Amino acid sequence: FLSFTCSVTNKKPAQASITKVKQFEGSTSFVRRTQWMLEQLRQVNGIDPNRDSPEFDLLFENAFDQWVASTASEKCTFFQVLHHTCQRYLTDKKPEFINCQSKIMGGNSILHSAADSVTSAVQKASQALNERGERLGRAEEKTEELKNSAQQFAETAHKV
């Protein structure tokens, strides 16, 4: 089972990536197969705009990758999120969407709101994780300072 994600960091400027993951039968976890930065995406090929099929191709700067979504509907949703993400986060070269159904390129406000909500939640979680990491780093520094102070005290006490 292959799945895919489009994620955005909370760094400034934001960095978006596309990750292809695989879930093995009988497992609940996913294994990352490949990952590209959104800026590397050059073309999204829906293969046939007149047929609901789960197959599609992504052309990156230095790679071509064939994909199969679980369903045609999942492919459509991924294309809509990907298109919205490209419009929002890419300022220079935006990828070309070819052989895609016209509904993918339309402005689905519900999808855009959902994508914005997911992006916001990811950014908040990432920020909380970064803040926790900073606190842990400060705690480690303080622990090291206390250790050094204790060693100096022990050496001084031993001399006396």
From TrEMBL:
One of its GO terms (cellular component) is exocyst. This is STXB6 protein. The keyword rRNA processing does not apply. Residues 107-160 form the V-SNARE coiled-coil homology domain. The lineage of its organism: Eukaryota, Metazoa, Chordata, Craniata, Vertebrata. Residues 131-147 have a biased composition (Basic and acidic residues). The gene is Stxbp6. Residues 129-160 are annotated as: Disordered. One of its GO terms (biological process) is Golgi to plasma membrane transport. Gene3D superfamilies: 1.20.5.110, 2.30.29.90. GO terms for molecular function: phosphatidylinositol-4,5-bisphosphate binding. Keywords: Coiled coil.
